[in-house]
Design a protein that fits this description.
alpha/beta; binds magnesium ion; 14 strands; single chain; four-stranded antiparallel sheet; Alpha-Beta Plaits; 2 domains; binds adenosine-5'-triphosphate; about 30% strand; Rossmann fold; 10 helices
Length: about 325
């Protein structure tokens, strides 16, 4: 059973002074997230990512369609005990310290006493806020708020966590820490659904991704599935290539260039690449590196959603 099931989910917002003009923020979204995976939700600003997550959290009501988490409708209150949520722009009570906020959040889930205190300490440690444990949240920087937001999202040891841009506002160290938290959640069996604009992080973390554009699902699958369809060949670096060997190799290569005593080649056709590898082994050329040439997620994203247009087309009015 999928952990998150979204069927034909559509959300219209009414805008304008008389709230008569509907804007379609989400248009017939279908997707499933499987247990234990890290699922990345991408899309340009205004694509409908936060709207989807808010619909899943039952903070918004859909215009049509349906969503279930852990097999339960999103309206089911008891199901929400088993999930965690980091909102896009978390806002917490200014005069609490992070330890107090986490204690409060833990109590909402029925946690008490020593186990709760231990949990709070552990979380402060793992999000790198131990040093600020007695500082009021109004004195927190954006990145520190983001960290405490992540901590409160996982205080109840959720089965599924929804993180709306968990890396936003974090310094490089903070991003690494969040990556570490997300992978450790996965290794303890937690399903992670997160939206992000930081594509290298998505590339490093996600089992599968979905790309949303103007309220519609544009692409979904593993990174390999999405990027492999645009496979463009191989790039290899060799050393110890004599001029005679180079003469032989050249016919298989689309591009050849040398840097220092190393030879770089780019080969499109698989057969030619096979021939090069066989030749290299046979003639004891050193293969310094061999890499498939495929666009990064960043390049793919640019070409897929690059043509920026006003976010959502209004219909009617
Ligand atoms: N409360 C609202 N009232 C009216 N329109 C809204 C409301 N919330 C969102 N929208 C519209 O819905 C669309 C999708 O917004 P959403 O916040 O889901 O995008 P997003 O993908 O999360 O973008 P970002 O990357 O900027 O966070 C936008 O066009 C936005 O203007
Ligand atoms: Mg958003």
């Amino acid at each position: 059973m999928p952990v998150v099931e979204i069927e034909n989910l559509t959300k219209d917002f009414s805008v304008g002074f008389w709230r008569k003009r509907p804007v379609r923020a989400l248009d017939g979204l279908n997707l499933e997230v499987h247990r234990g995976e890290i699922f990345g939700f991408l899309g340009p600003n205004g694509a409908g990512k936060s709207t989807t997550i808010k619909l899943l959290m039952h903070l918004l009501h859909p215009t049509s369609g349906d969503a279930r988490i852990l097999g339960e409708p999103v309206s089911k209150v008891s199901m929400h005990q088993k999930i965690g949520y980091l909102p896009e722009n978390p806002y917490f009570y200014d005069y609490l310290t992070p330890a107090e906020l986490l204690t409060y959040a833990g109590r909402l889930f029925g946690m008490r006493g020593a186990p709760l205190a231990k949990k709070v300490e552990g979380l402060l440690e793992s999000v790198g806020l131990s040093h600020a444990r007695n500082l009021q949240l109004r004195k927190f920087s954006k990145g520190m708020i983001q960290r405490i937001g992540i901590a409160q999202a996982i205080i109840n040891d959720p089965e599924v966590v929804f993180l709306d841009e968990p890396m936003s506002g974090l310094d490089p160290l903070g991003r690494m820490e969040v990556r570490r938290i997300i992978t450790s959640l996965k290794s303890s069996g937690v399903t992670v659904f997160f939206s992000s604009h930081i594509l290298p992080d998505v590339e490093a973390l996600c089992d599968r991704i979905a790309i949303l554009n103007r309220g519609r699902l544009q692409e979904m699958g593993t990174l390999d599935q999405i990027l492999k369809t645009r496979f463009e060949g191989h790039e290899a670096v060799l050393s110890g290539v004599t001029p005679e060997a180079l003469d032989h190799i050249r016919k298989w290569c689309d591009e050849v260039w040398s840097m220092g005593d190393r030879l770089h080649v780019r080969i499109g056709a698989r057969d030619n690449f096979g021939a090069l590898i066989a030749f290299a082994f046979e003639h004891k050329l050193e293969l310094v590196s061999v890499n498939p040439i495929r666009p990064s997620l960043e390049e793919y994203f640019q070409s897929a959603v690059g043509s920026r247009q006003p976010a959502v087309a209004a219909f009617g009015g």
